[in-house]
Amino acid sequence: MKFLSDKITNNSHGQDSSYFLGWQEYEKNPYDEIKNPKGIIQMGLAENQLSFDLLESWMAHNPEAAAFKNPEGESVFRQLALFQDYHGLPEFKNAMAEFMSEIRGNKVDFNADNLVLTAGSTSANETLIFCLANPGDAFLLPTPYYPGFDRDLKWRTGAEIVPIQCFSSNNFRITESALEDAYKEAQKRNLKVKGVLVTNPSNPLGTTLTREELNLLITFVDEKGIHLISDEIYSGTVFESPAYVSAMEVLSELKDKTDDVWERVHIVYSLSKDLGLPGFRIGALYSNHKMVVSAATKMSSFGLISSQTQYLLAAMLSDKKFTKKYLSENQKRLRERHEMLVAGLREAGIECLESNAGLFCWVDMRHLLSSNTFEAEIELWKKMVYQVGLNISPGSSCHCTEPGWFRLCFANLSEETLGLALKRISSFVASEQPVATSPRKSNKSSKRKGFTKWVFRLSQNNDRNRER
Ligand SMILES: Cc1ncc(COP(=O)(O)O)c(C=O)c1O
């Protein structure tokens, strides 16, 4: 530890969460239909693998874009190899801004000059925190929230997260009193509140914010003189009504451009989910604040999108016929998968929070807990991983306030594998019937011994886990 920075020797990365530990367990024993049919099925990964064929077909019909050629067939290899302007390729920024508008039913007009390109939303979120907060300043986040935020918002910036506590009794909706309570809590801890950060649609809930919630949020940040960051990374995945409403849309309805809150609402976006391209690292932040845009553009030097990726995506996103078809077909596929998961779980006696977006369901397994505690939630989660063979994300890893909720992803696996996962869940639930009447009691207690042996092994060197 000697001569190393405090940043890397303290434990603030947030990786000691069951969310990431589940990943480690999956990687040791991954399911494969042929090679490892008893392995762990990955349902803890918010990846969209449902529409690769559409992207591949576009590339097959447009080979010049991926081969560094312009529409005239001339090579642009040298220009791309040398290109290093951190403002990004203008044609890509325009295409990205238009794609973002298209997702919002063209109700929001994004100006490419206010867009800053970043290596994914991870980088966009962190960059915004660097621009808006000093170390020790706080952002309020509704619970449950994406576990990666503990790393993205806090680790390198030194900022703090204060939870806005949301509950199942109103379907985890954000209320005025929850916002006020979080604000007071931050003040009690002597933290200066710089803003609220929401994900819309929500990861892990899979729900979109209502107009009432968005009104409430804009009014709240306006009154307090703080910022609103709206992470809209799942905005193109909304597969069911109500239709998607962006924070920018509500802002433009409520406030005049001369109002200073106009400069305090910022959007984060990425193609990791809507297009299923997390490996390409294509993200952006959008802000009406000139200084934020200028500083974030300078900071983007630390995490730019490579020029050949920008070139390829500029061509793809400029093809309006393609983007329209892609968005609707991808949403249709997501809807079908979502229905399959919800119906399969219901047959097993498990209900999900009603949702209309995202790549996952927020699943209520409270009735399967041995007690209403987070210890019992982790006990159930271990059973899910080791006994049932499914890596799912426990609600506690998302800072949920109530034990017994889990996030189950449905778009990163094939229909057959999802079918198998549902079968495994169903037989597990059947085997969990009251212990007294079950002949499996002795079997159960021997398995329990196995679980108690389970230790939270956090390999400090294991930084290669993907975090989605
Ligand atoms: C809400 C949210 N924000 C940001 C990210 C990070 O995405 P990216 O791959 O664009 O960095 C994720 C990934 O799961 C996410 O769910």
Automatic annotation (TrEMBL):
<keyword id="KW-0456">Lyase</keyword>
<dbReference type="InterPro" id="IPR015424">
    <property type="entry name" value="PyrdxlP-dep_Trfase"/>
</dbReference>
<dbReference type="GO" id="GO:0016847">
    <property type="term" value="F:1-aminocyclopropane-1-carboxylate synthase activity"/>
</dbReference>
<dbReference type="GO" id="GO:0009693">
    <property type="term" value="P:ethylene biosynthetic process"/>
</dbReference>
<keyword id="KW-0949">S-adenosyl-L-methionine</keyword>
<protein>
    <recommendedName>
        <fullName>1-aminocyclopropane-1-carboxylate synthase</fullName>
        <ecNumber>4.4.1.14</ecNumber>
    </recommendedName>
</protein>
<dbReference type="GO" id="GO:0009835">
    <property type="term" value="P:fruit ripening"/>
</dbReference>
<keyword id="KW-0266">Ethylene biosynthesis</keyword>
<feature type="domain" description="Aminotransferase class I/classII large">
    <location>
        <begin position="41"/>
        <end position="425"/>
    </location>
</feature>
<keyword id="KW-0292">Fruit ripening</keyword>
<comment type="similarity">
    <text>Belongs to the class-I pyridoxal-phosphate-dependent aminotransferase family.</text>
</comment>
<dbReference type="InterPro" id="IPR015421">
    <property type="entry name" value="PyrdxlP-dep_Trfase_major"/>
</dbReference>
<dbReference type="GO" id="GO:0030170">
    <property type="term" value="F:pyridoxal phosphate binding"/>
</dbReference>
<comment type="pathway">
    <text>Alkene biosynthesis; ethylene biosynthesis via S-adenosyl-L-methionine; ethylene from S-adenosyl-L-methionine: step 1/2.</text>
</comment>
<keyword id="KW-0663">Pyridoxal phosphate</keyword>
<dbReference type="GO" id="GO:0008483">
    <property type="term" value="F:transaminase activity"/>
</dbReference>
<dbReference type="InterPro" id="IPR004838">
    <property type="entry name" value="NHTrfase_class1_PyrdxlP-BS"/>
</dbReference>
<dbReference type="InterPro" id="IPR015422">
    <property type="entry name" value="PyrdxlP-dep_Trfase_small"/>
</dbReference>
<feature type="compositionally biased region" description="Basic residues">
    <location>
        <begin position="441"/>
        <end position="451"/>
    </location>
</feature>
<dbReference type="Pfam" id="PF00155">
    <property type="entry name" value="Aminotran_1_2"/>
</dbReference>
<dbReference type="InterPro" id="IPR004839">
    <property type="entry name" value="Aminotransferase_I/II_large"/>
</dbReference>
<dbReference type="InterPro" id="IPR050478">
    <property type="entry name" value="Ethylene_sulfur-biosynth"/>
</dbReference>
<feature type="region of interest" description="Disordered">
    <location>
        <begin position="435"/>
        <end position="468"/>
    </location>
</feature>
